[in-house]
Amino acid sequence: MSPSGQPNSASRRSKIRQTSIVPIVQTEPGAVDLVAAKKRRRFDPHAFLATIAEGRRFVLFPRKREIFAQGDPADAVFYIQTGKVTLTVVSKTGKEATIGILGEDDFFGEASLAGQGLRMDSATAITDCAVLRIEKKVMMEALHRKHEFPDSGNWDLLTTTAVSRSTARC
């Protein structure tokens, strides 16, 4: 309050903030809870990967070991079980940039699923890593067999990530 008895600007702003807060989502009886529905159909990579028998193998990479290099054939997708991986790209002028640091339960190399023939980046183990390598053909077959995966939005996420990583390198 100011000496004249009028609310000062700070208290007016506080009052405005208190009165102008409205709920963003109002649920009505019978309304679908989209957040709960999304949680119910969340993609479980362990369950999905368990459906792949042939065409996958576990590979251990020690710290600082290259997993694949920029320009290598994009013939597989990788899934990190333990450890951390860095993704880097080298420009035509020789400058190197880190475009991602990934950890447990992350996929990488997924641009091969979007039609990329050669690796646009390099992947290197930051720490000792246990990685599952899945052949591109096998992964594509599994994705098409597992109908709820593409419908859950994770297919979009996987391919959008692949495309956005590819265009970020141009």
Q: What structural class do the secondary elements suggest?
A: alpha+beta
- Assign a percent range to the helix content: 25-40%
- Poorly predicted sequence stretches spanning 5 or more consecutive residues: 16-27, 148-155
The average pLDDT value, as a whole number, equals: 76
**Spatial gap, N to C terminus:** 58 Å
Question: What's the helix-strand series?
Answer: HHHEEEEEEEEHHH
Q: CATH topology, what is it called?
A: Jelly Rolls
- Beta-strand portion reads 15-25%
Instruction: Please list the strands of the largest sheet in the order they lie side by side.
Output: 1-8-3-6
Cα radius of gyration in angstroms? 24 Å
If you had to describe this structure to a student in words, what would you say it looks like?
The protein is of the alpha+beta class and 170 residues long. It has one domain: Jelly Rolls, CATH 2.60.120. Helix content is 31%, strand content 25%. Strands 1-8-3-6 form a 4-stranded antiparallel sheet. β4 and β5 form a beta hairpin. The longest helix is centred in the C-terminal third of the chain and has 15 residues. The protein starts with 8 loop residues before the first helix and ends with a helix. About 12% of the residues have low confidence.
